Amino acid sequence: MGDTPKSEVSTLTLHMNMVQQVVGSEFAPGSLLHSYNKSFNGFAARLTEKEAQQMSGKEGVVSVFPCQKQELHTTKSWDFIGFPQQVKRSTVESDIIIGVFDTGIWPESESFNDKGFGPPPAKWKGECQVPSNFTCNNKLIGGKYYKSDGEFFEGDIKSPRDGDGHGTHTASTAAGGLVSQVSMLGFGAGTARGGVPSARIAAYKVCWLDGCSDADILAAFDDAIADGVDIISISISSSQSDYFKNAIAIGAFHAVRKGILTSTSAGNSGPRLATVRNNAPWSLSVAATTIDRDFSTKVELGNNKICEGNSINTFDLKNKMFPIIRGGDATNTTSDNGSFSRYCEEGSLDKNLVKGKIVVCDDYGDGPLLAGAVGIVISGKAAGATASVFPLPASYLSLEEASKIANYINSTRNATASILRSDEGSNKLAPYIASFSSRGPNPVTPNILKPDLAAPGVHILAAWPSNIPISGYEEDKRLVSYNIISGTSMACPHASAAAAYVKSFHPTWSPAAIKSSLITTATPISPDLNPEAEFAYGAGQINPLKAAYPGLVYDADEHDYIEFLCGQGYTTKLLRIITGDNSSCPSNGTDTDLNYPAFVLSTKPSESINHVFHRTVTNVGSPTSTYKSKLVAPQGLNIKVNPSVLTFTSLGQKLSYAVTVEGKIDHKIMVSTSLVWDDGTFQVRSPIVVYVPL
C-alpha cells in the first residue's frame, strides 16, 4: 500500500493492468474488487494463490496478503473517570469529526439528534450514501457502506444503517449527544452522553454478518482520510503480525501521515499474555477497565436457599418456582449433538424434558432457548467475569455456587428454582482490567508497550438500534434504545473521544503528540488485581482533563516511524514505495529509540542488562519551566536519567535525555516502574518495563 497516487484515472488503469497481467485470459471486470486511490495506492482483487505469488514479485508491490475477516471487539463511565458533563469545552469541538469504522449506525437514535448544530465543518469532503432507509444530518454528517465481495446474507442491510448494534453503541459512546432519563429496561438509569457531544460523526460501515473484510477496512481508510476526519475509531481486531500485511496498520499509517490518529481496541483474548492486537506504534491500542457498576443475579431454590451469580437479567419471573434439571439429564438421543447436552449445545437437549423448566448447563449454548426452557443456570464462571445479557432468564455461577444447586437437585425428586431479576450494585474494586481484555507483551514488536492505556469497557450503557433485541437473538422480543454491553470495543471509543477532546484544544498537534498526552497523563492502576501490570493496562486509565494540558509531549512524525520500520527489517526500497519519496534507512537504529512515551526492554533470564534509551520531549506547558526527574528503580536494576533536570525557556522547545538501565532481573518475568518529569504543575509519567519473553 504505497503513497497517494498522482492521478485517480491512471491509477485505476494501472491496477486493472496489473491484475490482467497475472490473471491473463481469465481476467474479468469483477477480478478487481476495489482500487484505493484517494489517500494511498493499492487494490483488492480476486486472485489464486499462484497469481498472488506472481503479483508479490512485481516491481513496486509492497505486499500481497489474503483478505481476511476481522472481528469486532465487544453514561456513568465518563463521570467515573473524572470527566463530568460540565467540563471546560473548546468551541473547536463542533469542528472535530470522528470517523467510526464499525457495523454502521442507527441515525434515528436520539444520541445523534442535530438540534443546535450548524452545518458540517468546511473541511468535510465526505458524503452520505442515502438509500431509501438512511439519512444524515448536521450531527451525523457522513455515512458509507462497503462490501467489496458483493456477498450479502439474510439480515444484512445494504446501507450505512446498523444491523447489529455494535456500531451505534461505539459511535454514541464517543460523540453521542446528551440524552436524559435513559436506561436499559431500568438498569443504568441516567443521562447518556458521549465524551465529545458537540463533535460530528461519520460512519463507515465495514462489518457485516460474515465479519469485517480487510478490503472494506482499507476502502474506508482511503475515503476517511480524504473526507477530512480528525480521529478514526476502529473497534476491530487484526491478527496479522507483519505491519504491511495488516489492513488496520496500513490504513492507520497512511492516516498518521495526514495528521489523523487511529484509536483501536486491544482485543478480547485475555487474560492470556501476548494476545494484544493492533500493535502498530502509530496507532493507539486500548484495554478495557471496569467501572463502579455491577450486576448480580440470584437463583432461589425450592429449599429456600439462595445461590448468587451474575448476568444482566431484566426478566421477572415473579418468584414463581419452576422445575430445574441438569442438561446432562435431558439428552436428545436422536441428535448427533446429544453427547454435548451437559453444555446445552443447540440440538443436544430433549425438548420434552426441558420445556417449561430451568436448565443447568456447564457452558452457555442455544439449546435451552430453542428447546423451550424457562431459564438457564450456567456453571463455571471465572473470577472477574463480566455480566452479560442472555435471551432468557439466566445466571452465571461459580463452580462453588453451582455445586450447591447440584447437591440440591440430587437431594430431591422434585427440584424447583426461580431466577430473580438482577440487582444493580457498585463494584467497589474498580477500576481494574477486565479478564477478557487482551494482554501484552507486544507479540509483534516486543520493545513497544501495548496496550498503550486503558478506558472503561465493562457494563457500558450507550445507544442501540430500536429494532434489534438486546441479546442479539431474534427469539428475544426485548427492544430498547439504549443497551449495556462490554468489550474492548467499548473502551476504544472512550479513548477516541479523549483524543478528540485534546485535539479540540490543540488542533495543530500531531497524532503522536495527542497520543503522548493521553499516555503520560493516564491515571495509574494498581497491579494488585492485575498481576500483568503494564501488560494489562499500559500507562493506566485515560484522564481526558489532564490530557488536554500534559506539560510535555513525546512527538514523532512520519520520518520517525520510517526509521522504526527500518529497525524492524523493512528495506529502503520498500519504504520508498510506501512513502513515495526518497526515504532511506539509517545505518543504525532500533525500536527502543522510537520517541515513544514508554520504555520497554525484553531480556533473557539472569542476563546482565546495559541499555540506553534516547528520548526528546517538547514543551507545551509553561513557557519557562524546570522539570526534575523522579523514579524508584525496581529491585535488581539501576536506572539513571541524564540529564536529570530539564530547563525550558520557551513553548515548543525540545530537549533530549537518556535513560540507562543496568542490572538483571532474577526469578521474575517482569519488573516495572515509572519515570515522572515534574515541574510542580505538570507531572509527565512514562512506564518503564523490563521483562523476559515467554
What does this entry look like structurally?
With 694 residues, the protein is α/β, with parallel strands linked by helices. It contains 15 helices and 33 strands. Strand 14 (294-301) and strand 15 (306-309) form a beta hairpin. Strands 14, 15, 16, 17, 18, 19, 20 and 21 form an eight-stranded mixed β-sheet that branches. Strands 5-8-4-11-12-13-22 form a seven-stranded parallel β-sheet, with helices on both faces. The chain has a five-stranded mixed β-sheet with strand order 26-33-32-28-30, with no helix packed on it. The longest helix has 18 residues, at 488-505.
TL;DR of this structure?
This protein has 694 residues and is α/β, with parallel strands linked by helices. 20% of the residues lie in helices and 25% in strands.
Please name the defining characteristics of this protein.
33 strands; seven-stranded parallel β-sheet; single chain; 15 helices; eight-stranded mixed β-sheet; 694 residues
> What's the overall geometry?
globular
Structural class: alpha/beta
Report on the biggest sheet: 8 strands, mixed
* N- and C-termini, Cα separation: 33 Å
Radius of gyration over all CA atoms, rounded: 26 Å
Number of discrete helical segments: 15
Q: Low-confidence parts lasting 5 or more residues at pLDDT below 50?
A: none
The total of beta strands comes to 33
